[in-house]
Amino acid sequence: MDLGCHIDGYIAVAAHTCVVTESPDAQPEKDEELGNVAVAAYNAMLVAAASIKAGATNADVTKAVERVASAYGVTPISSVRMHQMKRYVLDGVKEVALKAPVPDDPEEEKVPECTFEQAEVYAVDVAMSTGDGKARPGEFRTTVFKRNVEQQYHLKVKAARQLLAEVDKKFPTLPFTMRHLSDLRSAKLGITECITHGLLTPYPSMHDYSGKVAHFKCTVLLLPSGTSRVTGLKLPSYFTTDKAADEETQKVLEEIAAVEAKKAAKKAAKKKNKKKKKSEATLSA
């Protein structure tokens, strides 16, 4: 599951991997391969989120993700990138690769090095595979697109011009799905020319046919007090593995767990204190 929302252009995103069973009460069957890659991807997301801090570089984060993948024996999906987000901008200029590119592989591009700064926002996007980590478009029809505002072209087909005019008005910078358009039939006729000339960027359904995949994503804010993870769920309990993280990763995970436990205790104490005050107020009344 991969989703995002925005309030007045300020974006938050999240992605989560889960197993769908035949009934809500049924527990998923144990799958060692899937469990291992899910634990690896989730821990890599946590470590990457902790590594994105003011003064650090994207190369530092890439090394941390590769270290986690190596410990669990899985492969980061090379086409996935972490992105800086700005107001109304989903994919900012600053990017983080999940793995260093292979020099002789034309499918892998080198990401320009950058340094993180305070007051920035990032989508920490991690996907890993038990296979070769090469994601390719699947057989499902693409229905999600985004306007490429840097590209301009005088469209020939009337349906394409109508489609682009509606997109520019309703979805000028963020992704949209075809079903949100007013005339779906006309949009289907015009979409091809818009894509051909780079006016719309498709979001295809990607698959790694060489193995099993797990995908997790969260949003982090680089605040004066440190990096704050503001989206994301806990790892489902049915994802387990016999493999252990490396020493450095384990240390980071323990630090994250300690901070979360402290926050939970503080929240519980605050709730208890609020309940106590409410009870005292009721008795005095």
What does this 3D model show about the protein?
With 285 residues, the protein is an alpha+beta fold. It has five helices and 13 strands. A hairpin with a 2-residue loop joins strand 12 (213-223) and strand 13 (226-229). The chain is globular, with a radius of gyration of 22 Å. The mean pLDDT is 93.
> Please, how many helices?
5
User: Structural class of the secondary elements?
Assistant: alpha+beta
Question: Mean pLDDT, as a whole number?
Answer: 93
For the largest beta-sheet, the strand count, sense and barrel status come to:
6 strands, antiparallel
Proportion of β residues? 15-25%
User: How many runs of DSSP E, i.e. beta strands?
Assistant: 13
The helix-strand sequence is: EEHHEEEEEEHEHEEEEH
Helix content: 25-40%
**CA distance, first residue to last residue:** 49 Å
Tell the overall outline: globular
The parts where pLDDT drops under 50 for at least 5 residues are: none
Radius of gyration, taken over Cα atoms and rounded to an integer in Å: 22 Å
Essential attributes:
single chain; 285 residues; alpha+beta; 6-stranded antiparallel sheet; 3-stranded antiparallel sheet; 5 helices
Q: SSE layout and pairings?
A:
Layout: E1 2-7, E2 10-15, H1 32-51, H2 58-72, E3 75-76, E4 81-85, E5 95-97, E6 121-129, E7 136-137, E8 144-147, H3 158-170, E9 176-177, H4 184-196, E10 200-202, E11 206-207, E12 213-223, E13 226-229, H5 247-284
Antiparallel strand pairs: 1-2, 3-6, 4-5, 4-6, 6-12, 7-11, 8-9, 8-10, 12-13
Helix pairs in contact: 1-2, 1-5, 3-4
